[in-house]
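pipeline: protein-struct stage 2 | run 1193 | Mor transcription activator domain-containing protein
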Amino acid sequence: MKYQNAHHILPQALVAEIQQYIQGETLYIPKEEATHKKWGTKSGSRSLLDARNQRIKRSFADGVSIAQLAVRYHLSQASIQKIVYGKKKADVAR
C-alpha cells in the first residue's frame, strides 16, 4: 500500500468533501469487494496447501494414523483432524 496525495489524484470538490470528515491524517480506502482475492491465490500458497491437504486426506484414507501424519507434515494432531474430517474454524467454535 503506497501513500498518495489526494490533491494529485482526486477532483478538488471531492477533496473538499472529504476534508469535512478528516484533515491532515492518513485515510485508507479499501478495494472494492469484487477485486478482493482469497489468501494465497496470488503467491500460489493456497494451491500448495490444497495439494498438501489432499495428500494428507489420501494418506489417512489409506490407513496412515493421525499421529503419523502429524509427525510427517509437522502439524499438530488437531490440525490433521481438521483437515481429514473437513472441520473449519466456524464448525469447531460451535
